[in-house]
Amino acid sequence: MTAQHFRRPAGGRIDRGRKVAFSFDGRRFEGYAGDTLASALLAHGEQMVARSFKYHRPRGIVGAGSEDPAGLVQIGRGANADPNTRVTEQEIYDGLEAIPQNCFPSLNFDINVLNDLMSPFYSAGFYYKTFMGPPGSWRLFEPIVRHSAGMGVCPAEPDPDRYDQVNRHCDVLVIGGGPAGLMAALSAARAGARIILCEETAEIGGRLLSYPEGAPTLNGKPASAWLDSVRGELAANPDVTLLTRTTVTGYYAMNFIVAWEKVSDHLAPGERDSHLPRQRTWRIRAKEVVLATGAIERPLVFNGNDRPGIMLASAVRTYLHRYAVVPGRSAVVFTNNDSAWAAAFDLAEAGALITGIVDIREAADPGLVERAAALDIPVHLNAVVTATSGRKRLSSVEIAGRNVDTVGEDIGRLTADVMAVSGGWTPNVALFSQSRGQLRYDNALSAFRPGRSVQKERSAGAANGTYGLGACLGEGAAAGAAAAEAAGFAAKPAAPPALAAMEPEPAGIEALWQVPSKLKKPKAFVDLQDDVKVSDLKLAVQEGYRSVEHAKRYTTTGMGTDQGKIANMNAFGILAGALDKPIPAVGTTTFRQPYKPMTIGALAGAHVGETFHPRRGTPMHHWHREHGAVFEPVGDWLRARVYKRPGEDFDAALMRECKSARTDIGVLDASTLGKIDIRGKDARTFLNRVYTNAWLKLAPGKCRYGLMLGEDGMVMDDGVTACIADDHFHMTTTTGGAARVLTWLEDYLQTEWPDLDVYLTSVTEQWAVASICGPKSAELVAALCDDLDPDPESFEFMTWRDAHIDGVPVRVFRISFTGELSYEINISASYGAWLWEKVMAAGAPHGITPYGTEAMHVLRAEKGFIIVGQDTDGTVTPFDLRMDWIVKKNTDFIGRRSLTRSDTQRPDRRQLVGLVTENPSVVLMEGAQIIGTPSEPTPPVKMLGYVTSSYFSPNLNRSIALALVESGGERMDERLYVSQKDGAPIPVTVTETDFLKTAEQADG
Amino acid sequence: MADPRRRSPLAHRAPLTAEGGTLTIAERPLLGRLVLRVDADKGDAAVATVIGAGLPKAVAETALSEAATIFWLSPDEWMIVTAAEAEERLAADLGAALAGIHHQIAVVSDYYTAIEIAGARARDLLSKLTTLDMHARAFKPGEARAGIFAKANGVLFQRVADDAGGGPAFDLAVRWSMADYLWCVVAEAGHEWGLPVEHPVAGEPLFH
After folding, report:
1. CATH code for residues B16-29+112-191
2. H or E element: which one contains A318?
3. What is the ipTM for the molecules in this complex?
């Protein structure tokens, strides 16, 4: 382990009392608590941390936060591996293992560096060109590209971590914990508003953490003292939620904002609180928002600008002061504005040798020039960097004079292992733009800044293009107060602290989007993550990609995990130059959510695994589980599909259940059927309008089956409705259709027929239902009920009776979905489990058999009863089902008009029929297509329809099927064929759908 | 005392207390519940004669009396909560009082159960499950709101005020079939403050 040779002897926001051991690229290092991976590596003089995406060129640490373009590594291994983590954001902990990605076999020796030599072939639009190239060229290149390109590897194992989502409302959401954001939060909090403050890094302070201690002072004290007092005041206020390590990733409509908190990622796995999630998504609904997201420094674009050691000047200052690391021993500063001069002074102060300040401008602030002279720093005005050297880290810099857009005379070579670069500052407008706010270009800043707002937000400080510290503090305070006022609080701006001992600030910028070069094709990178050079952007324009959005996609500039945070503004400037248009005419690419990549785990929260989605169970669910049931999902319900006895397979259990229901007694848990209580004097009129058949004369005590159609005349739902009293009905719907039907009926009552006196209430789960069926069921019902004579002669089919079982009220319906003698016993759900046990005990002497939904399907198909959604598909009318008898002739109902359309009256519509195979043991495949010829002709093949339901019926001892067949009703006894994937079409005969009746007639 | 033959949706779940004592969850089983639908102005007086409180008229409002608590669900729809097995009698009395006024009374006691979520962290727990504003300024004692909790429909009622000894207590009414799911999701949301992990009953493996 090497020593931290580049660590300053004192200062910084690190805890020197807590050493932290970690590894990077298989080597062991040591840092301090409070370090990021980047600062700890820089403390050891490590600059190169990654290889670039396309050319596998060495990539160093450029920034000091989420703006860093290419310093991506994988943290940890196996299921816990976290790829594409930015070294500038990951805090170190004991045992942290950082693994370089996108290189093989190692960071220092990477085979794919060959891509760099091949770079002339991988120019802009390489993918597009292979797509568009000779047939097959993409197929040839794809495996090669996929192997060498890539952004880390996703772990294959399930994610072992826990994630969380929280909803929060607030009066004022402040995004950004820098000077402006803190003043905004103080102002709004003092007014009594509910505040959420989100800070992306580990602690509040923003740029104040990147300044030398004591320069500036706030209220005569160092910045850290002021920050302590602010932190204390905010923490003591119960209506302030201060979130650090929290990035606002999305700004959506109606001030809905998503923030992503990294709760545990900064801790060693052993130190993480097992009760806390790894990460948490905050779903925030804010009345007002203050955007204090700061500004991002952008680099200058020059030949050889991608070597490790070339950093943003602001990042250099952050490492010097926040982390107490000197990023190099000899340094060059290259700038187009005043702020970077401070980096030179700070580096000199920290003991580095400044071999030159290279400023593209003809003149700089005289005070800065004087200060440089006092520190013996050579200053080169009106000069540019023309080349750099050093294989894996910077060693020297060549500079020359500048002659406007060309290179002047050579000045010489400067020794440097670090270069601090500043091309000016860009307000961080990503979230403002996501909020649909309009950007406007500011010539003085050479950047886009917030223009017209669309949502209830305001930008403050550097995010608003206000760079001076004093102005930022004041603007933040005003924005916080204004936001609190807008949210309904009397507020006034908090008084900003008095500033003294100020450092140079971003001022006097002269835009230079592309530094002149002596070379025809300089290696001047615009986007360091995606390896996009100036020449790529120019090629894109040359090849006709003139819109900024097209050029982005053609070159991939501004894409990837960094979304071009430091690259975009330079790219817009270069495109504007190439197009010979002003920058506002070129515009920007679209800022989209998320601001930076989130984990899928944080998006899913706790909606994973067994709590992914509700599994609805009936009151008898526990009994089913204890008696061998295998379940099937029906909507969100789990219904028992079959009950397997020990040693029995699925088919054997199914056959047994089907038989028992017709020879002895079967019982089905029918609790899931939708149930709607209907009340009011117009209830009959209502039913008469929603069902296709007549309801005006159904007497109390009777039941009727009904079909509901959509406005298009197609079958939507079906079920039995019972008349309880003249103004009171009990409707049942399909299990899956329950919620939809209720909503639809309520919609009709509220919007179409408000004149009808009808109320609806869902009572689906108020009732548990045991549906008893089979020849011996009357005996069982007689034994069960205290006060009901179940004799089918007197208790007629399609009627219902109130009764009691051991004194508990029940409602018994004489309705059937099997064609067999049936009784459906409805009981209050809390008695459901008791009733079921009771039925099983009383039925035992009669050989009662519980049956599941699969047997139900077979039994109803034997009788030719349809299942809406299986035998219908939204294109089927009652006539298509050959249920003409259920459609009344003279009065209106929903869908009636559509049944008179020429299309719904076509004679060749598909109609529901039965199909029997010539070989009774062959069971057709559901969904199989029906054709008219014994062998498949050459395509296109005329399809006559398809099989909707198909089973082996143990009661008929043969296979049966239902099918929708063109003009099916006209084809009785016709021979058709059902195609199959492997083998000749299967011959079938068209029959009526009631197979039981057909069999009886044949016997009779 | 409810009939012992009855079983509540969460009868298989025992109350849970967080390690630090800042949260408890428990089922409040088998309460009497009715849904009443009626024109608010026409039904108000009749309801008041039976319950001793009129119909609440706006979102979140409730009406309390010794006989029952009334939650506003929509402009012509209320849920009335009463003691276990008192609902049939209450339904009959309301029906008699509302005779001649178009209305609907549906007994839904067994359709729903309630999960009580109580303790200092109850609001924080609930804010993980609902988009409703759970701040004490926004959701006040005695208020009830319907909404989606995780992926289940529910009606949330603050029964005990925040300044009561053990912190606030909320009753979250949920449909029978969703109760076990919601119970487990509530426990998961409270894991941060020490509630144990609960596994849904479910029914996997499915099919064969």
Report:
1. 3.30.1360.120
2. helix A313-321
3. 0.97
Q: A650 touching B, CB under 8 A?
A: yes
Chain B residues with CB-CB distance to A613 below 8 A: 151
pLDDT band, very low/low/confident/very high, at A274 (cuts 50, 70, 90): very high
pLDDT at A678 exceeding the cut of 80 = yes
Mean pLDDT of chain B: 96
The model's pTM = 0.94
What the block records as the tokens of A546 is: 């003139």
Any A CB within 8 A of B4 CB: no
Best to test chain B binding among A261, A275, A607, A753 (most B CBs inside 10 Å)? A275
Q: Which CATH number fits domain A299-423: 3.50.50.60, 3.30.70.20, 3.40.630.30, 3.40.50.1240?
A: 3.50.50.60
**pLDDT value at residue A1002:** 86
What is the C-alpha R_g of chain A? 38
Per the prediction, chain A carries an average pLDDT of 95
Is A945 touching B (CB cutoff 8 A)? no
DSSP β-ladder status, A396-403 and A406-415: antiparallel
Q: Which residues make Cβ contacts (< 8 Å) with residue A600, sequence separation at least 6?
A: none
Chain B CB contacts of A763 under 8 Å are 106-108, 111
Query: Closest Cα to residue A692, out of A716, A725, A675?
Result: A716
| Phi/psi at B198 (5° precision) | -120, 140
Structure tokens at A421: 């670069």
Distance of alpha carbon A653 from the chain centroid: 42
Determine whether the interchain pair A759/B12 forms a contact, defined as Cβ–Cβ distance below 8 Å: no
| Residue B40 sits at the chain A interface (C-beta within 8 Å) | no
Helix (H) / strand (E) element for A235: namely helix A223-236
Chain B partners within 8 Å of A610 (Cβ): 184, 199-200, 202
Angstrom distance (rounded) from CA A550 to CA A200:
31
The CATH number that domain A163-295+427-500 falls under is 3.50.50.60
Local confidence band at A249 (pLDDT 50, 70, 90 cut-offs): very high
Using a CB-CB cut-off of 8 Å, the residues of chain B touching A764 are 111
pLDDT value for A391: 86
Q: What is the CATH topology of the domain spanning A860-892+905-1003?
A: Gyrase A; domain 2 (3.30.1360)
Minimum Cα–Cα distance from B99: chain A residue: A680
3-class SS letters over A635-669 = CCEEEEEEECCCCCCHHHHHHHHHHHHHHCEEEEE
Superfamily of domain B32-107: Heterotetrameric sarcosine oxidase (3.30.70.1520)
Q: Please answer yes or no on whether B207 and A808 come within 8 Å at the CB atom.
A: no
Q: Is the confidence at residue A108, as pLDDT, over 70?
A: yes
Average pLDDT over residues B105-114: 98
* Residue in A85, A59, A212 with CA at minimum distance from that of residue A152: A85
Q: What is the dihedral of CA B136, B138, B141, B147, to 10 degrees?
A: -120
Which phi and psi (to 5°) does residue A783 adopt? Answer: -70, -35
Q: What percentage of chain A exceeds 90 in pLDDT?
A: 90
Return the pLDDT at A149: 62
Q: What is the dihedral of CA A573, A578, A580, A583, to 10 degrees?
A: -20
A789: pLDDT strictly greater than 80 = yes
Tell me: pLDDT of A503 over 90: no
pLDDT at A948: 98
What per-residue confidence (pLDDT) applies to A931?
97
**Under 8 Å between Cβ of B94 and B47:** yes
Q: Using CA atoms, how far apart are residues A995 and A992, in angstroms rounded to an integer?
A: 7
Closest CA to A628 of A656, A610, A660, A653: A653
CATH topology of domain A1-160: Ubiquitin-like (UB roll) (3.10.20)
- Topology of the domain comprising A674-765: Alpha-Beta Plaits (3.30.70)
Lowest mean pLDDT among A416-420, A883-887, B1-5: B1-5
